[in-house]
């Protein structure tokens, strides 16, 4: 896993492909092997961001077939929609998620996803709104954490 971590850190596509293909070549219970699940999810996100559709599809199938956790299945579905099938309906769904959480780190992730979807849909004004809210939330929480250190 350290090799995959290295390749992901340096965005070495050939290295990431090589290790991921080795991992998906053998069945594994991803519920029990959380480290492998984490690295595969990181790789999945890498492939989404780089529009490597063949690897995205292969990882989706492998993760969904080898992990029974509903949270993971939901996350795969959301990420797929954010990067490959953005829609106004997805924006509504993400805004509902935003209302249902009080955790700043979760809100930051949702704002980032909203920003990506709005950009892909060509709504630059809406994307800018989400980016501004994300920056304000990050700024306020960093200040809060610094104050709590005293």
Write the layout of secondary structure elements.
Layout: H1 2-9, H2 13-23, H3 34-49, H4 53-66, H5 70-84, H6 88-99, H7 104-120, H8 124-148
Helix pairs in contact: 1-2, 3-4, 3-5, 6-7, 7-8
Q: What does this entry look like structurally?
A:
This protein is an all-alpha fold and 150 residues long. The chain has 8 helices and no strands. The chain has helices spanning 2-9, 13-23, 34-49, 53-66, 70-84, 88-99, 104-120, 124-148. The model has no long low-confidence stretch (mean pLDDT 92).
| Helix proportion | over 70%
- How many individual β-strands? 0
Strand percentage: under 5%
Annotation field: number of helices:
8
The succession of helices and strands, N to C, reads HHHHHHHH
- Terminal Cα span: 38 Å
Shape: globular
Structural classification: mainly alpha
Report the biggest beta sheet as strand number plus sense, adding barrel if it closes.
none
Uncertain stretches: none
Roughly what is the average pLDDT, rounded to an integer?
92
Can you give me a brief rundown of this structure?
This protein has 150 residues and is mainly alpha-helical.
Main attributes?
mainly alpha; 8 helices; 0% strand
């Amino acid at each position: 896993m350290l090799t995959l971590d290295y390749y992901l850190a340096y965005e070495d596509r050939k290295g990431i492909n090589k290790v991921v293909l080795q991992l998906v070549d053998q069945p594994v219970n991803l519920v029990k092997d959380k480290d492998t699940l984490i690295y595969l999810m990181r790789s999945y996100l890498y492939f989404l961001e780089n529009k490597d559709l063949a690897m995205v599809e292969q990882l989706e199938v492998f993760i969904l077939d080898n992990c029974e956790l509903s949270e993971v299945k939901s996350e795969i579905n959301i990420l797929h929609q954010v990067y490959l099938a953005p829609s106004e309906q997805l924006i509504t769904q993400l805004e509902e998620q935003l209302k249902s959480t009080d955790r700043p780190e979760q809100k930051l992730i949702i704002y980032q996803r909203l920003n990506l979807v709005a950009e892909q849909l060509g709504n630059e004004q809406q994307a800018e709104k989400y980016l501004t809210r994300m920056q304000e939330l990050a700024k306020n929480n960093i200040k809060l954490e610094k104050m709590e250190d005293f």
